[in-house]
Every structure is written in structure tokens, then in C-alpha cells.
Amino acid sequence: MNILDKIVADKRKEVALKKSIIPASQWEKSVLFGRDRNSLAEALRKSETGIIAEHKRRSPSKSIINQNINVGQVAQGYNKAGVCGISILTDIKYFGGSLEDLLLARASVDIPLLRKEFIIDEYQLLEAKAHGADVILLIAAVLTRIEIKNLSELAQSLDLDVLLEVHNEEELKKSTMPSLDMLGVNNRNLKTFDVSLDTSKELSQLIPNDFVKVSESGISSIEAIEALKIFGYKGFLIGENFMKSVNPGESAKMFIDQLKK
Ligand SMILES: O=P(O)(O)OC[C@@H](O)[C@@H](O)c1c[nH]c2ccccc12
Q1: Domain named Indole-3-glycerol phosphate synthase: which ranges (predicted)?
Q2: pTM score, whole prediction
Q3: Which of 119, 121, 127, 142 has an alpha carbon within 20 to 30 A of 4's alpha carbon?
């Protein structure tokens, strides 16, 4: 079994257990459930820099990245740096994140927040909304076309933006539909962890122009972003490059200031 299959198998068990403890109807009572749309796609369309910064303590590919920081402070630092939105990993087992992290980030900033999660069930969308998310990630590698359709349509009805992530042409062809807002190309293969920015470059012309194009993973230089912009990318998801620093917000600020020059 590859790592992605293992993560998803564990996720199914986790969600089944959570559902038996806290019914979905509970999440609909959250004060955050009534929040209006706060669109990341819109923010990216208007932005010159397009940075989405991620809060990620560890990952299966890199183990520990940064365990010593406070998610609220990181979110505030990213916000001050001028990012368009923040991605918050909420998977506990493989990434050391939680829904609490999302809530704490929500309490700290007003900019769009992405719930970074392996979403396989509608229940997780209700959780995301109840904890202050504005955007959800759907990963084409782990979903069928009909699942992508059902999940993205429910997300839209909850005023959540949808970022659909692909890694190859087959996933892209399977997933394109009007209920998506952004198409993300993950430069990292989630089954082997190989990273290449060429993945974004190769797939760019196959992505219809009505979607905001986002390049994800392995981005660590201004030059990489300049090169990706030529291929039509408006959003750039950066995790490790900022998180490995003692002060991720400061590191994001230096990066964005440089990008503006
Ligand atoms: O830390 P990086 O290489 O900058 O990558 C960030 C982000 O793209 C990555 O964390 C990611 C992209 N898609 C995912 C799906 C699940 C978990 C994590 C991810």
C-alpha cells in the first residue's frame, strides 16, 4: 500500500469514529457556520503576488519541520506579510495538525483560510465550516468524479471556495467541473514524494482559464514564481520554505517584499 492509500484508509476510520461521537447537526449550530463567503479565488485574482502560506508542523516526507511555534502567531505573521490566504493542515496523524489549529488561526486573522485535509466525506465540510474555514481542498487522486461533484456542490452551498488538487492529466480530465473555483497542481507526487515544478508547467495549458490556477509544493524561490507566472499561475502555495524558519511570518514577509520589487 502506498502512503496516500494508507492516509486515506486511516482517515476513513477517523471520520467514522468522529461521526459516532459528534453528530453533523452539532456543527451546524456553530456561530462560525453562518459566516459569509470570504473568497480566496477572488483574493488571488486581484493579487500581484498570490502567496498562500501554509502552517505545517511535520509531514510524512520531511518528518519534523517546526514544532515550536504558535499557530495564532504564525497566522498573524503571515497576515502581516501580506499573503492572500493561509493553509492550515488539520490532519493529526501524519501532519501534526488539528481542527483546533484552524479555530485558533480563525481567531487571529480575517483573511481566507484553507482547511488542508484529506476530505473523503461531507461531514468534514461541515467541520471545516464550523471551525472557520473559507476554502476546502479536494484531492483528485483519492476521489471519484461523482464524489468530487457531490463534495464541491455541498461546499459551494456552504459558501466555501473549492481548491481541487491534481497531479497528472488523467486526474485533471476526470475532475474539471463548474463547482470548482481553483485548480491546484501539486508538484509533489503524494505516492512517492518526488517534487518537480515541471508538473505545473506541463499541466498548465490543459487547465481551462475560468479556474484560478494554483501551483503547490516545492516552491522556495522568487525565480520559481516568476517562471510559473508565465504559465498562467496566479496562486502559489508555500509551506516548508516558510515553516522551517524560526519566524515563518518574517520569512514570508521577506519573500513577498522581494517578489514585489
Ligand atoms: O511544504 P511545501 O513543499 O511548500 O508544500 C506545501 C503544500 O503544497 C503541501 O503541504 C501539500 C499540497 N497538497 C497537499 C495535500 C495534503 C497534504 C499536504 C499537501
Answers
A1: 4-251
A2: 0.97
A3: 127
